[in-house]
Every structure is written in C-alpha cells, then in structure tokens.
Amino acid sequence: MKTHPLRRTLFVALVILLILCCFLAPYAWIVASSFKNQLTLFNDVTPLSWKAFLPVGGTVENYRTLFERTNVLTALLNTAIVAGGQVALTLLLCAMAAYSLTRVRFPGAKIVFVLILLTFLLPIEALMVPLYQVVSGLGLSNTLLGVMIPWIASPFGLFLLKQAFEDLPSELEDAARIDGAGHVRIFFSIILPNVKVPMLTLGLITFLFSWNSFLWPLVIVQDPAKQLIQVAIAQQGSPTQLPNWGETFAGATVATLPLILLFLLLQKYFTQGMTTSGIKG
C-alpha cells in the first residue's frame, strides 16, 4: 500500500518527461545542427542517433557566415520595431474598444461585438489581396508601418480585454464619477491600472504573432533592407543552389532566442492572464 503513491508519482513524472522531450527535441536538434557543417548534419540523422541532438564536433562557421553575408541584424531591428509598434497600437485600440463595449451603453453593442469576433474566422490568406490593395493605396507598401497596421485591430485582443473589463466592479467607476471624472479619466486612471495582467498577456501574444509573421511581410515588403527576420532567413540562400541547412538553423536559433527570453520573463503574467480571462488552455 505504501508503494502505490510512489509508483503513481513515478508514472506521472515519466509521462511529463516524455511530453517535455517531445517538445524540446525539435528545438534541441535545430540548435545542435546550427553548429554543424552540412556533411556532419546529415550523417547524424541518417540513421538518427543521439549526436543529432548535441553539437558534437561543433563549429561557429554557420553563425559567422550568417552575420557576414546576410542582413540579420537589420532584419532583427526591423522585426523589433514592427513588433513593438504593433503591441503598443493593439493594446491601445483593443482597450478602447473593450471599454466602449463594456462601459458605454449604446444600441446593438452585442451585435457589434459578435460581428467583430466573426472576422477572427477569416483566414489570413483570404485577406491578402484586399489588404495589399488598401495598404498600397495608402502609400504604405514597402514600409514597416504597412507591415503592422493591418493587424492592430485584433478580435482576439478585444475578446480578451472585454472579459477582463467585465470582471471589474462598477463601484470603482461610480466613485470616480461622483468626483467628476469623465470617460477619459476613468479609462486611464481606473480601468487600465486594474487590468495590467490581461494587458501584458495580450502584449505578449501580439508580440509573438508579429515576430513570427512571414506571409504578409513577404508580400508587402520588397526592399531587403526593410525585411523582417523570418523572411530574411528564408531568403538567405540562392534559388540555384542547395540550401545550407546549418546556416538556416543558425538563423532560426537567432530568431527564436528573443522570444524564449521574453516568454521566460513574462510567463507568470501570461498564465495568470489566460486563467483570469476565462480561457483555459
């Protein structure tokens, strides 16, 4: 009887370890392969061996070539500018929209909210042509502003913040109105300070989405000096030559590191925000 809880604990630990290995193994392979030349990389995976997940006989040649021959640093800076701008504009726009739908009474508010959520079901591929026409018509094609503008109105962001705003007690606003506060003061002084965790969660999700975007930057930006990191990595090779997978994996590693560091710093707020907003996952 005493060994039963121990066996159960060991079984759960093994299952968790197996799941963890399934998630970490691909990234470990990418990082390890980024330190190998083309021949070593293929020898370690045909047949597959433990050497594929460790930088055995590693070299930094792939990273040296990556930074010397491609505009990785410029692409990283462009991506950081776009992601930061998109986060700021998305938080501001979604917060104001959520406040309007939860605190300003007007006919058809629920219908407006449902219609906005329905746009979340549209695939990005179906929006490419009309978005390109609109952005080009505004003279924003081949600019960093044109990369971020179409995505700042986030239906998911509106849903997330609307849930958070509805959980706030109305007594806070009633007390502020007695003191003569209007909508602007209530929004910035009462509402926003009390929804920091959902705001940080939305900011993190928006940053991840923007940093990993590929198709839209590929379509709207033609100047290599203004390209984002994901597209720059994909275009670093020559169409007439076989890809250098070690160099490609080095680029993928460099592009992923900022996201890992950001998530490690903000993971507490991310989990809190997803839980308190009523989203389980």
From TrEMBL:
What biological processes does GO assign it? transmembrane transport
A GO cellular-component term linked to this record: plasma membrane
Which parts of the sequence belong to the ABC transmembrane type-1 domain? 76-266
Reading the lineage from the top rank, the first entry is: Bacteria
| Membrane topology recorded in Swiss-Prot or TrEMBL | Multi-pass membrane protein
Alphabetized, the UniProt keywords read:
Cell membrane, Membrane, Transmembrane, Transmembrane helix, Transport
Q: List membrane-spanning regions.
A: 12-32, 75-99, 111-132, 144-165, 186-209, 248-266
Q: Where in the cell is it found?
A: Cell membrane
The similarity annotation says: Belongs to the binding-protein-dependent transport system permease family.
Please state what the protein is called: ABC transmembrane type-1 domain-containing protein
| Classification lineage | Bacteria, Pseudomonadati, Pseudomonadota, Alphaproteobacteria, Hyphomicrobiales
